[in-house]
Design goal:
heterodimer, A: 326 residues, alpha/beta, Rossmann fold, 2 domains, five-stranded mixed beta sheet, globular, B: 335 residues, Pyruvate dehydrogenase E1 component beta subunit (chain A), oxidoreductase activity (chain A), THDP-binding (chain A)
């Protein structure tokens, strides 16, 4: 099985879909030169400047044009550079892309993918570091994808491009260089299916995006202390794999949700509430959430670190949950 | 020299403008019935009449093919009908009834008929400009020869998408005609009071898009301007048309428009585009009785559409959950 980086896997997925379907095209600032992180490097050479299209610094028009182009039967992949910048295009995404099919009574689909890199990424401060996935999970009509591995970045981006719904596709900037095995098979993944990162029966840790790796490391460390944590990577937040989460928590009796985003009104709250509603009697410990405090992200590393959920924090949370039940 | 009592010879394409007159009468009658229906609480949400602006919609759309595309605004009944949508499904949509163009899920501000290339009214001022640019971008990508027309009002030129969408159309040289319906008002405020600089045409020219201005209450003038521009746009680059007109009613059907003097409105009624066109046709030899009959037929058609829409039931409640999305469909996942 070949090893690819998360960045290369995403690039491969786009290239494969563009070879397969001439109506797939990508548009965003600096794409001709490879994109801000190099996720598009080499693609303009293969597909030409009309299908790997540069764009003015006009997030609103990049997104709005994608809506119009999608309604006309093409399948645009929109690059927003940073999810923070996509906020300049919220009307186009939320009022237009997400609503067009519904408010026009099913006359149109809007098959666009908006790639919005998220997450804390070495001293990038308050406008280049946010994780706003919960905003989009809140919006009817949108699919929200948050891949954590190279294999998923290939399989889920392919699925997103083939999906007829508008998909908010959130890659984590700190994962670009992460390498992993990517299956030879070029099949798209299934949107809405969680991945069991590690099986275990004492506690269920639910996470997504880069925080999955923090949880996996914490689970290894906990195993050394005799605590077996099951780590679930949701992979998509809408739809989210409620069945997999409930089944796991039913076995373990304990739920910890770990997210990089601000905890208040984050997507973890939805999972916690769903589990509390469905499995109240089966819980051996109160549901816990770990996420960022409700403060903007700082530039200076010691301040920036205040919003990070660390392996030690996950370990400590699990210990307190398992100790409380003992 | 012909004898003095011989009618002047007219070069007017009578058939063309009689059809345009009929379409303007239909739009006027539709909106008059819709306003009456709003007073009867048959129309449930806000409607934004385009009474007085019909010649812009008809003059422009009369130069489009069925496969060409338009994008409209919250004040979009005229554009929609001029592009070929039918009155009854429109009226049903305004009433929120079964058989409306959007299954009763959109109402007046989201009316659309993709089968005639009408890609939607829009509840957000200026939002259709970027979407229209993308529709034109898709035509270019697919190597087709279609044209996109994007209608918007003078109020929209102060929104960001005006800059972004026009720049986009200029950069990519897209087949799009921007039509600014300059009716003088941005909702209930005079646009001039809130607009710096020389206005829409100057802004378009500054972005490198050739702009022209036309008397928007003169069907013939709009038609001739649009014909030339659509020809230039098809297979070519963007153009910009300002159509000077006047909104004879309030911002919405429930807006009495007390912010403007009655004398001003009365004066503007003297430049009613339908009456202008009627006089044009009469001068070209069309009998007045024939023109009156066209108008009466349009009114009868729209009264019937109102009655039939009112007699139509509500959409099935299950439709509330339909057409949200395929992946994570609320009908298949209980949340």
């Amino acid at each position: 099985m070949p090893r690819l980086s998360y960045l290369e896997a995403g690039k491969l997925a786009l290239a494969e879909e563009m070879r397969r379907d001439p109506l797939v095209w990508a548009v965003g600032e600096d794409l001709g030169r490879g994109g801000v992180f190099g996720q598009y490097r080499g693609l303009a050479e293969e597909f030409g400047p009309a299908r790997i299209s540069d764009a003015p610094i006009s997030e609103s028009c990049i997104m709005g044009a994608a809506v119009g182009a999608a309604m006309m039967g093409t399948r645009p992949v929109v690059e927003m550079r940073f999810s923070d910048f996509a906020l300049c295009a919220v009307d186009e995404l939320v009022n237009q892309a997400a609503k067009a099919r519904y408010m026009f009574g099913g006359q149109s689909h809007v098959p666009l993918v908006v790639r919005e890199p998220i997450g804390i990424w070495r001293s990038s401060a308050a406008q280049h570091s946010q994780s706003l996935e919960a905003w989009y999970a809140h919006i009817p009509g949108l699919v929200v994808v948050v891949p954590s591995t190279p294999a998923d970045n290939r399989a889920l981006l392919k699925a997103a491009i083939r999906c007829d719904d508008p998909v908010v596709y959130m890659e984590h900037k700190n994962l670009w260089a992460l390498e992993g095995e990517v299956p030879e098979a070029a099949e798209p993944g299934e949107l809405g299916k969680a991945r069991v990162v590690r099986a275990g029966g004492d506690v269920t840790i639910v996470s997504w995006s880069a925080a999955v790796h923090t949880c996996a490391a914490a689970a290894e460390s906990l195993a050394g202390a005799g605590i077996e944590a099951e780590v679930l990577d949701l992979r998509t937040l809408w739809p989210w794999d409620r069945e997999a989460v409930l089944a796991s928590v039913e076995r373990s009796g304990r739920l910890l949700v770990v997210q990089e985003a601000v905890s208040v009104a984050g997507f973890g709250a939805e999972i916690a509430a769903s589990v509390a509603e469905a499995l109240h009697g089966a819980l051996k410990a109160p549901v816990r959430r770990l996420g960022a405090p409700r403060i903007p992200i700082s530039y200076a590393p010691p301040l920036e670190d205040k919003v990070r959920v660390t392996e030690a924090m996950v370990v400590e949370a699990v210990r307190s949950m398992t100790a409380a039940a003992a | 020299m012909p004898p003095a009592d011989t009618p002047p010879v007219s070069n007017l394409d009578v058939e063309r403008y009689r059809a345009g007159f009929r379409q303007m009468c239909r739009i006027r009658a539709f909106e008059e019935q819709a306003i009456a229906a709003a007073q009867e609480k048959l129309v449930l949400g806000a409607i934004h009449p385009s009474i007085g602006q019909e010649a812009v919609a008809v003059g422009v759309c009369g130069n489009l093919r069925k496969s060409d595309i338009i994008l409209s605004t919250h004040r979009g009944h005229g554009h929609t009908m001029a592009k070929g949508a039918e009155a009854l499904p429109m009226m049903r949509e305004l009433f929120g009834r079964d058989g409306g163009y959007c299954q009763g899920k959109g109402g007046s501000m989201h009316i659309a008929d993709f089968s005639v290339g009408m890609l939607g009214a829009n509840g957000v001022v200026g939002a259709n400009i970027n979407i229209a640019a993308g529709a034109a971008h898709a035509i270019r990508l697919k190597g087709e020869d279609g044209v996109v027309v994007c209608f918007f009002g003078d109020g929209a030129i102060n929104r960001g998408p005006f800059l972004e969408g026009l720049n986009w159309a200029g950069v990519f040289q897209l087949p799009i005609l921007f039509v600014c319906e300059d009716n003088g008002f941005a909702a209930t405020t005079r646009t001039s009071a809130m607009t710096s600089g020389a206005g829409p045409a100057a802004r378009a020219e500054a972005i490198g898009i050739p702009a022209s201005t036309v008397e928007g209450n003169d069907l013939q003038a709009v038609d001739e301007a649009a014909r030339e521009l659509v020809d230039l746009v098809r297979g070519g680059g963007p153009r910009f048309l300002v159509a000077r007109t006047y909104r004879l009613t309030g911002h919405t059907s429930s807006d009495a428009a007390g912010y403007r003097p009655q004398a001003e409105v009365q004066e503007r009624w003297l430049n009613d585009p339908i009456e202008n066109c009627r006089k044009l046709l009469e001068a070209a030899g069309v009998p007045a009785a024939e023109l009156a009959a066209i108008r009466e037929a349009a009114e009868a058609e729209m009264r019937a559409a109102k009655d039939e829409a009112a007699a139509t039931g509500w959409p099935a409640v299950e439709l509330a959950y339909a057409d949200v999305q395929d992946v994570g469909d609320p009908r298949t996942r209980a949340f």
